[in-house]
Design goal:
It contains 22 helices and no strands. Helices cover 74% and strands 0% of the residues. The protein folds into 2 domains: 216 residues, Growth Hormone, Chain: A, CATH 1.20.1250; 213 residues, MFS general substrate transporter like domains (Growth Hormone, Chain: A, Up-down Bundle). The protein is mainly alpha-helical. Keywords: Ion transport, Membrane, Sodium, Sodium transport, Symport, Transmembrane, Transmembrane helix, Transport. Belongs to the major facilitator superfamily. Sodium/anion cotransporter family.
Length: 480
C-alpha cells in the first residue's frame, strides 16, 4: 500500500495560476472575437442602438476588418516563445494583454476619421500583442503543473477559449443594444483586460519557487513531480537550457503535433467561418445576424470541453487508457467525427434547416476534444521548451485561417451552388482525416530526450568521442 502524497491545500497556488490563465484566455478571446458583433452594429445601427454613428462598409471591407487580427496574430507566435524564455511568462503575458486591451480602447475614438482602414490597423496591433499569449500559457502550465495533474489543469485553463468566444458574442450584442452602444464593446473589452492585468501582477509567479504565497508542501509536491522543471529562476532558463533546434526539427512526434494542430486550424476555420456562409447562400439562413445561432455551437463546445475533461480523468485514473491513448482517442473523435459531419452538411436540403443547425452545433461541440487530444501535447514532449514549441506550432496553425478563405474564394463562385460548397467541405474533411492519421502514427506523449537541459552538451561530447581529432583540437584550445 502506497502512502498518500502530500499535495498541499485542496485549492492551492497552482489552482490559482490555472484560474488566472483561464481568465487571461477569456478576456483576450473577448477582444479577439467581439469585432464580429461590433461590425454588425456599426454597419446596421437599427439592429442595436440607432443613436450611434453608422458606417457604409461593403462585405469586402468588413471581411478585411474581421481577418486583419490574424495578420498580426501569426507573426508574433514564435517571438512569444522566445520572449517568454527571456523575460518570463508574467511580464510577457502582462504586455500581451494590456497592449491588446488599450488598443481596443482606440477604436471608438479613431474610426470616425480613419474609417475601416484604421479599424483594420488596430486589429492588426491587437493580433500582434495577443500572438505572444499562448506560448507563455504553455510555458506557465509546464512550470506549475505536476505531471499527474497536467492534463486536467491544462484543459481547465484552455476552456477559456470557448468561454471567451461565447461571451464575446452574447455580451457584445447586449452591450451594443444598451445605452453604451457599439463603442461600449471596446470600453468593456479594455476594462476586463486591465482588470485581469491587475490580478495577474498581484498573484502570478513565473515558477512555484518565486511565489510568496505558496505553501512548502505544495512547492515540494510540484518540484518533486516527475518531469517538473528543475529548481531554477525562470530568468536563467535560456542560459542553462539552449534550444536544441536540430533535434526538434528532426523529431517525428513534434512534426506529428505540428501537422495535427495545422489540420485542426484548417478544419475548424471551415466550421467557424464557412458553414454559416454556406447556410446563408444555399439554405437561406442568416446565421450571422442571429446571436443565438451564432453562439450556440461555441456554448456547446464549452460544455463539451468539460465532458471531455471529466471523461479523460476517469479513463486515466482507472487506467483504462494511457495518456497517449487518451490523446489519440480524443483527437480522433475531434477530427474524424466533424470530418464526416462536414460532408453530411453539404447534402442537407433547404427544407432541413433544423438538421443543418444540429449538425453544425454537433461538429463544433465534438471538436472540443482537440484540446486534450493534441493542444496540450507540447508539454508532454518538452516542459522545458513548451513555449518555443507552442510558438512554432501556433505560427503554422494561425497562418492557415488566412489561407482557407482564399481557397474558398477560388472554388465558390456562386454561394448558392451546393456542388461548389461540397468540394470545400470534402477538402476540409480530407485534411481533418489525414492530419489525425499522421498524429496517430507518429504522435507521442513520451518526454523527448532533447528536453534534457544537458542534451546539447551530451551530444557534443558524444561527437567528440566519435571524432578524436576534433576532441584533441578542443582540448588544445582549452589549454591556451
Amino acid at each position: 500500500m502506497t502512502a498518500d502524497i502530500a499535495k498541499g491545500p485542496i485549492l492551492g497556488q497552482r489552482h490559482l495560476q490555472i484560474f488566472l490563465l483561464f481568465l487571461s484566455i477569456t478576456v483576450n478571446y473577448i477582444a479577439k472575437f467581439n469585432a464580429g458583433v461590433a461590425v454588425v452594429a456599426m454597419t446596421n445601427a437599427e439592429t442595436t442602438n440607432p443613436n450611434f454613428p453608422e458606417y457604409d462598409w461593403d462585405e469586402m471591407q468588413k471581411s478585411f476588418i474581421l481577418s486583419s487580427f490574424f495578420w498580426g496574430y501569426f507573426v508574433t507566435q514564435f517571438p512569444g516563445g522566445y520572449l517568454c524564455r527571456r523575460f518570463g511568462a508574467k511580464i510577457t503575458m502582462f504586455i500581451s494583454t494590456i497592449g491588446s486591451a488599450l488598443a481596443a480602447l482606440l477604436i471608438p475614438f479613431t474610426v470616425d476619421w480613419g474609417g475601416w482602414q484604421v479599424y483594420c490597423g488596430i486589429r492588426v496591433i491587437q493580433g500582434l500583442f495577443q500572438g505572444l499569449l499562448f506560448p507563455c500559457i504553455h510555458a506557465h502550465l509546464a512550470a506549475w503543473c505536476p505531471v499527474e495533474e497536467r492534463n486536467r489543469l491544462g484543459a481547465l485553463a484552455n476552456t477559456g477559449i470557448e468561454c471567451g468566444t461565447v461571451l464575446a458574442m452574447f455580451l457584445g450584442g447586449i452591450i451594443a443594444a444598451s445605452s453604451m452602444g457599439w463603442p461600449g464593446i471596446s470600453y468593456v473589452s479594455c476594462a476586463v483586460g486591465v482588470f485581469w492585468c491587475i490580478l495577474w501582477l498581484i498573484f502570478a509567479a513565473n515558477t512555484p519557487r518565486e511565489s510568496k504565497l505558496i505553501s512548502e508542501v505544495e512547492l515540494n509536491y510540484i518540484e518533486t513531480s516527475k518531469n517538473a522543471l528543475k529548481e531554477m529562476d525562470v530568468k536563467e532558463t535560456p542560459k542553462k537550457i539552449p534550444v536544441p533546434w536540430k533535434a526538434i526539427m528532426t523529431s517525428w512526434p513534434f512534426w506529428a503535433l505540428l501537422v495535427a494542430r495545422s489540420a485542426q486550424s484548417w478544419g475548424f476555420s471551415t466550421l467557424q467561418a464557412e458553414i454559416p456562409s454556406y447556410m446563408n447562400g444555399v439554405l437561406g439562413m442568416d446565421m450571422k445576424s442571429n446571436a443565438m445561432f451564432s453562439a450556440l455551437p461555441y456554448f456547446t463546445m464549452w460544455c463539451m470541453s468539460y465532458v471531455y475533461l471529466i471523461l479523460s480523468d476517469i479513463l486515466l485514473q482507472r487506467k483504462v487508457l494511457t495518456l497517449n491513448g487518451v490523446r489519440k482517442t480524443f483527437n480522433s473523435l475531434a477530427f474524424w467525427v466533424p470530418a464526416i459531419g462536414l460532408i453530411a452538411v453539404g447534402f442537407v436540403g433547404e427544407d432541413q434547416q433544423t438538421l443543418a443547425i444540429v449538425l453544425m452545433t454537433a461538429n463544433v461541440g465534438i471538436n472540443a476534444g482537440s484540446t486534450i487530444g493534441s493542444a496540450l501535447n507540447t508539454i508532454d514532449l518538452s516542459p522545458n521548451h513548451a513555449g518555443i514549441l507552442m510558438g512554432i506550432v501556433n505560427t503554422s496553425a494561425n497562418f492557415i485561417p488566412i489561407l482557407t478563405p482564399l481557397l474558398v474564394g477560388l472554388i465558390v463562385k456562386n454561394e448558392e451552388d451546393r456542388t461548389e460548397w461540397q468540394i470545400v467541405f470534402a477538402i476540409s474533411a480530407i485534411v481533418f482525416g489525414l492530419g489525425n492519421l499522421f498524429y496517430i502514427v507518429f504522435g507521442s506523449t513520451q518526454l523527448q530526450p532533447w528536453d534534457d537541459e544537458n542534451f546539447l552538451k551530451s551530444s557534443q561530447e558524444t561527437q567528440n568521442e566519435d571524432c578524436p581529432t576534433e576532441k584533441k583540437s578542443i582540448e588544445n584550445k582549452e589549454k591556451y
